[in-house]
Amino acid sequence: MYDDSSSRIVARLKKWMDGAAPGAKLPSTRTLVAEFQASPVTVQKALQTLTSRGLIESRPGVGTFVRATRTARPSDYGWQSAALGSSPALLSSRSATMRGASNEAIAFHSGYPDRELLPERLVRAALARAARGDAALSRPPAAGLPELQSWFSQELGAATPAGINPPTPSDVVVLPGSQSGLSSIFSALVGRGQPLLIESPTYWGAILAASQAGVRLVPVPSGPEGPDPEALARAFSDTGARMFYAQPHYANPTGSQWAPGRGEQILDVVRSNGAFLVEDDWAHDFGITTSPSPIAARDDSGHVIYIRSLTKSVSPAIRIAGVIARGPARERILADRSAESMYVSGFLQAAALDVVTQPGWQTHLRSLRHQLQSRRDLLVASLREHAPEAHIEHIPKGGLNLWLRMPDGTNLARLTRDCEDAGVIIAAGTEWFPAEPTGPFIRLNYSGANPGAYPEGARVLGAALRNNGG
Ligand SMILES: Cc1ncc(COP(=O)(O)O)c(C=O)c1O
Question: Rounded to an integer, what distance in angstroms lies between the CA atom of residue 464 and that of residue 458?
Answer without folding.
Answer: 10
